[in-house]
Amino acid sequence: MTRSFVTGGCGFVGRHLIDRLLRLGHDIWVVDDLSTGLHPEQWLRPRATHTTDEGGLNRYFVGGQVVTFLHEDLAVTMLKQLGVVKDGAVLEFPRFDYVFALASVVGGRVKIDGDPIGVAVDLAIDSLFFLWLARNKEKVGRVLYASSSAAYPINCQKAEGHFALRESMIDFSSGELGQPDMTYGWSKLTGEYLSRLAAERYGLKIACVRPFSGYGEDQDLTYPIPAIAFRVARGDDPVVVWGTGQQGRDFVHIEDCITAMWLAVNKIEDGSGVNIGTGILTSFIEAAQLFLKLDRCSRAIKPMIDKPVGVQSRYCDPAGMKAVLGWEPEISREEGFQLVLRKAYDRIATLGPDALERTSS
Residue 361 has what pLDDT? Predict the structure, then answer.
């Protein structure tokens, strides 16, 4: 039996990762405070043959596998495991073959730009998590730390002189590191540094991944791709995009992200990072145009320059990813956007046309 531990497993990425791990035959432990994630009752219970509640641990039996869910802030869980917080009997974790560190305060640009100190809590989450790893390395197999393309220097992502971001641009041995994107980027850069130390000083087998702009059908509407698709499906005219619309990203479908993560955790052991992206820069205006094309309609597109936009141009050089993982994304932008557009119609039917306005997007 293979057992995995997923922190932050109820979020967008975590749910897709757990789906994949279940298909691979893993038993899974999940810790999530549900600050942004969905309770397993919403996405896991419908597939479960039965469930149990054992002293605050919810167990879901799915296709012969067991998912054990603990509803708790990961920092609190780690403090209890480390003996810093003494709150009755301490939950005894089993040995894990794989550990996937996804837990973080995360959100769209409204969160990243609007509450930078709140996002900086990620520094505490990661430091406690790595301390737990170091103290329990004999009970841990392979580890994956989910970093981000936000860890890359923002001076390489300007409107003028931008270029594809390569793994070598984050080099801890050089003594020179560029400034990442807000506190979210700082936390991910620090997490990568801790990953290197965990591998070099404590002998842990750990990989870092730097996903670019992951998207998917069930992603929260605070993110740009599902939000733009929702506006197109709703029939908005004009279709609003944030900022000038000229800012661009490297959009990669969530299922491709999960495949790359699984490959990385099995191929990388030294704490180094690898990109997950297509290498294709797509502006938000181009994204809206593609959705309109897929919807077989023609409407105006309206920029909203009073909205937060982040850096101007963020896209990867996929050469390192192809060399290290022996893989490249399989879902085309057109195919992935079509899936998101179909889901947008479903969302309008079930949630109502004002669902987007009920978010902060």
Answer: 41
* 232 and 239 Cβ atoms separated by less than 8 Å: yes
238 Cβ contact list (under 8 Å, min separation 6): 299, 300, 301, 302
The domains of the chain are located at 2-218+251-279+315-330
Strands 96-101 and 2-7, bridge-based pairing? parallel
- The structure tokens listed for 324 are 């290290």
DSSP 203-236: --EEEEEEE-EEE-TT--TTSHHHHHHHHHHHT-
**Coil, strand or helix: which one is 240?**
strand
Q: Cis link prior to 238 (omega < 30° from 0)?
A: yes
108 vs 349, higher pLDDT: 349
What's the pTM? 0.95
pLDDT value for 176 = 83
Give the C-alpha separation, 4 to 16, whole Å: 14
- Residue positions counted in the chain: 361
pLDDT, tens digit, 9 for 90 and up, residues 252-296? 999 999 999 999 999 999 999 999 999 999 999 999 999 999 999
Per-residue pLDDT at 81: 95
Token digits of residue 264 = 């990385």
Mean pLDDT of 326-338: 98
CB count in 10 Å sphere of residue 161: 9
Distance of alpha carbon 44 from alpha carbon 231, whole angstroms: 29
Closest CA relative to residue 8, chosen from 18, 23, 20 = 18
DSSP-H helix ranges across 235-318: 254-267, 284-294
| CATH number, domain 2-218+251-279+315-330, options 3.40.50.2300, 3.40.50.720, 1.10.1240.10, 3.40.50.620 | 3.40.50.720
- CA gap 359, 361 in Å, rounded: 5
Residue 142 identity: R
